[in-house]
Amino acid sequence: MYKSILRTCAMVMVMAVTSLSLSTIGALADTKGYFIDLLYLQDGKTEQDAKRYFDKVVPIIAKHGLRRVTPGFKVTMKMSGDISPNLINVWSVGDVQNTMNDIFSDPKYLQHMPLRNSIFDMKRSHMFMMKAMQ
C-alpha cells in the first residue's frame, strides 16, 4: 500500500513537471521566429565585401538572439517577381519582439552601420520578420 501511494505521488509529480515544461516551451515558441533579408549591393561592392561585414557583426548579433540558419546565399537566377536582390540571408530570431531593438541599441553593432550602408543599398533591400503559422 505504501509503495502504491509513493508510486502515485511520483507519477503526479512527473505529470506536473512535464505539463509545466511543455507550457513553458509553448510560451517560448511564441517569441521565436525567422528573419530574412534580401540585400542589394551598392555599385562596385562584392560578395566578399558583404562577407567581411557579416564576419564582423555575426558574433555581435548572435548575442542578441539573431543566428544564421543557413550560409548566406547569392542569387544566381531570378525565377519570377519584381525584385532582384544580390544576396539573401536566413536567420533564426530568439525573440521577435526584442531582438532587433536590442541589436540596434548595441554600440558594438552600431559602429558597423557605416560599413553596412557602404556595402548594401538599404533603400532597395527588403527585410522580413516571420513567425510560423498557427
Structure description:
By secondary structure, this protein is an alpha+beta fold. It has 5 helices and 5 strands; from the N terminus they run αβαβββαααβ. Strands 1, 2, 3, 4 and 5 form a 5-stranded antiparallel sheet that branches. The protein is globular. The N and C termini lie far apart (46 Å).
Q: How much of the polypeptide forms β-strand, as a percent range? A: 15-25%
CATH topology of the largest domain: Alpha-Beta Plaits
Question: Unreliable stretches, pLDDT < 50, 5 or more residues?
Answer: 1-28
| Class inferred from helices and paired strands | alpha+beta
The helical percent reads: 40-55%
Measured distance between first and last alpha carbons: 46 Å
**For the report, how would you describe the main beta sheet?**
5 strands, antiparallel
What's the average pLDDT?
83
Q: How many helix segments?
A: 5
The secondary-structure element order is: HEHEEEHHHE
How large is the radius of gyration?
22 Å
Overall tally of structural domains:
2
State the shape. Answer: globular
Number of distinct beta strands: 5
User: Briefly, what CATH class of the largest domain?
Assistant: Alpha Beta
Q: If classified by CATH, what would the architecture of the largest domain be?
A: 2-Layer Sandwich
Characteristics:
Alpha-Beta Plaits, disordered N terminus, 134 residues, 5-stranded antiparallel β-sheet, 2 domains, 5 helices, alpha+beta, 46% helix
